[in-house]
Design a protein that fits this description.
Helix content: 25-40%
Radius of gyration: 31 Å
Number of helices: 26
Strand order of the largest sheet: 1-6-2-5-4-3
Number of domains: 4
Largest sheet: 6 strands, parallel
Number of strands: 26
Structural class: alpha+beta
């Protein structure tokens, strides 16, 4: 061990304490923040604790091992601005509601998060601390004191002041060089663990994944002999002991001794070993807390999500934490199982118990494609429906990210939801704002005939969801015993152990098994948004060489005006245009995209002369964005005549490409979207379908709401 020379800017803990206390007590006419840095074991955390002791109204929070979401919640509670069941939106809104000038001390932000493969330290600074700095009222006089790993980075991005403590530091490289092979393997395996505490039996499994079989007995002896570095922790719930490094910085140094490729292979091996290990309480405990981290670190996160057996055991806190790490710097593929996690995060799903999480995960999978629904069935089989507080029986609707371009996406606008009695079975009736009703059997969701004047099911209770959870339908307050749901679930009706609900996705029915003890009432709500980004959807294969039905599905058959071969002018020589007009037809459109097309079944193709048209052979299709829309009879290109000042005349490289682009845009613009907005997808599709036309000013302009009359 050696001690490095002090940095000239370093100060002693005593001097730092005096400076910090004087800084806090300055007149609170403006807010400020102070970053604490320094070498390992400099006493930064102890210093913040001492400051909190000398500031009775200060709020101290040790962030080590805590997810950023929980840190945000604890801060909001400390400010007294929102109980967990009344959050209107998120942490940003909570911060704007702070009415007093608090002193906040956040220690160990560099060790935030439950996993070692994590982005939580960055999220605490960028999403929690930055929001406190940016969103609080300027008259508060807030004081923030934050311990970080490196003060230079945060000073550069957020400003403020900094104090760097001098410290003895520590050179763990000497320890690494002196350790024998058994010790080195054991220390590296413990450092590569995704949980900071590891059961002894699991530690042995980790050693094997690193290439050396080390028995539990050997590890026990090693723990005793290296008590200065290792700490034994007993578990009061289970009959086994766990081991952890006394200082997390020691684990960090050991992790850095393992090459990236070797570490990635290790993590994948661990996940495989956990799948096949004897299902002891120690293994279950570790899988719940660490398996997701190994999957992210090993580059096999997608395979974890598709394994129902292990997903039934993984805790949602670490799953979402690993999700943030796995897709940091990249995008979440729309067609992947991870996209479901993205939408759950965007919709604020943050369960209170593992059972509640599994019920919500099962429900979300049922609302997706066939592969996800099969995974939902396997998940339910792995846990047993009766072990959950509730589970979804059936669902009708379109889950986020699952839409296709085959038809317009229409989200249900359920105004009335009832369970009624019929001669054969209880029925569910859902009525929208236009008075249209859908009817299903309560037990299995099969469509049924709307019964006339059927009585309400006995003892059925209707409910609406507000910011404080379920209340009687139409009432301003009160409580109805219905399982907690995210805010996109709006209405419910319950009778006995069955409940039917409507959401922005559709209508679904659940079986209620129990009311979990300790679960708060109110809505499920996240304080922080996910930092992941969703990738663009794959190009819809149905749009390539689409048949007439694909166009008719959104416009109707009467809008497409087909022309007989004999009605086509001979000077329309482009074969592609001739085939499209006879087999598909040209849409008669008005009041969309500033597009006014002719009814070709009435006007036919009228020849026009224009310099843009090759050999002067062109035909009028209508107007677009105030300019005449033409088709070049020789090339088949669709052009604007430039009369409105748009410089690039190209609207479509062919008639099919132009009409397909308009149809895709119409599908996006006329559909109802909830969480997902497919504008980025649409842009990428149009760019692939006809890159030259998409780059033209006329197509770029249709995405600009501020100057496009029928989009404003």
């Amino acid at each position: 061990m050696s001690t490095s020379a002090p940095d000239p800017a370093e100060v002693s803990p005593e001097l730092a304490l005096n400076r910090a206390l004087r800084w806090i007590d300055r007149p609170r006419d403006s807010s400020a923040w102070l970053w604490f840095g320094g070498k390992e074991r400099a006493g930064k955390t102890e210093l913040l604790r001492e400051i909190s002791r000398q500031q009775p109204d200060a709020f101290f929070l040790d962030c080590a091992g805590t997810p950023s979401e929980e840190i945000a919640r604890k801060l909001a509670d400390s400010f007294g601005v929102a109980a967990l069941d009344t959050y209107g939106r998120n942490f940003s809104n909570a911060v704007t509601s702070i009415s007093t000038g608090p002193v906040v001390l956040l220690a160990n932000t560099q060790w935030a998060g439950s996993l070692r493969t994590t982005r939580e330290p960055e999220r605490v600074v960028q999403q929690v601390v930055h929001t406190l700095i940016r969103n609080h009222r300027r008259s508060l006089g807030m004081r923030l004191l934050i311990e970080v790993d490196h003060t230079a980075d945060v000073m550069a991005s957020m400003g403020g002041r900094e104090l760097t403590l001098g410290a003895p530091g520590g050179d763990y490289a000497q320890m690494n060089r002196s350790a024998d092979p058994v010790e080195a393997t054991a220390f590296r395996a413990l450092a590569l663990a995704e949980s900071r505490t590891v059961p002894l039996s699991v530690w042995s499994v980790l050693c094997s994944a690193l290439g050396h079989d080390i028995s539990v007995q050997q590890l026990e002896r090693l723990t005793s002999s290296r008590s200065a570095d290792l700490l034994t922790q007993t578990n009061s719930e289970f009959a086994w002991a766990g081991v952890a490094f006394r200082r997390e910085s020691t684990a960090q140094v050991w992790r850095e001794t393992v090459p990236h490729e070797e570490a990635e292979l290790f993590h994948a091996r661990v996940l495989s070993a956990l799948r096949s290990a004897e299902p002891t309480s120690a293994v279950h405990w570790y899988v719940h807390r660490a398996a997701a981290g190994h999957a992210a670190a090993g580059g096999v996160f997608e395979s974890l999500l598709q394994d129902a057996t292990i997903m039934a055991k993984v805790g949602h806190h670490t799953l979402f934490e690993a999700f943030e790490a796995a897709y940091h710097g990249g995008t979440v593929p729309q067609s992947s199982p991870a996209a479901n996690l993205y939408y759950l995060a965007e919709r604020g799903v943050w369960p209170h118990t593992h059972g509640e999480w599994l019920a919500l995960l099962h429900h979300s999978l049922l609302n997706r494609g066939p592969a996800d629904r099969a995974l939902a069935d396997r998940l339910l089989g792995a846990v047993g429906a009766s072990t959950l507080p509730w589970h979804t029986l059936w669902t009708h609707g379109t889950g986020p990210g699952t839409a296709t371009t085959e038809n317009l996406i229409k989200r249900p606008n359920v105004r009335k939801l009832h369970i009624v009695r019929s001669a054969s079975a209880p029925l569910v009736t859902a009525t929208d704002g236009q008075g249209n009703s859908s009817v299903w059997r309560l037990d299995n969701g099969e469509p049924a005939v709307d019964p006339d004047d059927a009585p309400m099911a006995p003892e059925s209770v209707e409910a609406d969801q507000g910011l404080q959870g379920w209340r009687p339908a139409g009432a301003a307050e009160g409580h109805v015993d219905v399982p907690r749901m995210p805010r996109y679930v709006r209405r419910a009706v319950r009778t006995g152990d069955r409940a039917v609900m409507s959401s922005s996705d559709g209508v679904f029915a659940i079986a209620v098994h129990s009311s979990e003890s300790g679960v708060p009432s109110g809505v499920l709500k996240r304080m922080l948004r996910t930092t992941t980004r969703l990738g663009t959807a794959d190009f819809p294969s149905e749009a390539l060489r689409a048949p007439a039905e694909w166009f008719e599905n959104v416009w109707g058959a009467t809008r497409l005006k087909r022309l007989a071969q004999g009605a086509l002018p001979s000077r329309l020589s482009d074969l592609g245009a001739r085939q499209f007009l006879t087999e598909i037809g040209f849409p008669h459109i008005s009041g969309f995209l500033e597009l006014e097309t002719l009814d070709l079944s009435v006007t036919h193709l009228t020849a026009v002369s224009h310099p843009l048209v090759e050999d002067g052979t062109g035909f009028l299709l209508g107007t677009w964005q105030g300019a005449h829309l033409l088709i070049d009879g020789n090339s088949g290109k669709v052009l604007q005549d430039g009369s409105t000042g748009i410089s690039n005349p190209l609207a479509g490289s062919s008639l099919r490409q132009f009409v397909t682009m308009v149809r895709l845009y119409y599908w996006w613009f006329a559909s109802d979207w909830s969480v997902e907005d497919a504008e980025a997808d649409l842009r990428s599709w149009l760019a692939r379908l006809d890159p030259e036309a998409y780059a033209a000013q006329c197509w770029q302009r249709v995405f600009e709401d501020y100057n496009f009359t029928d989009r404003a």
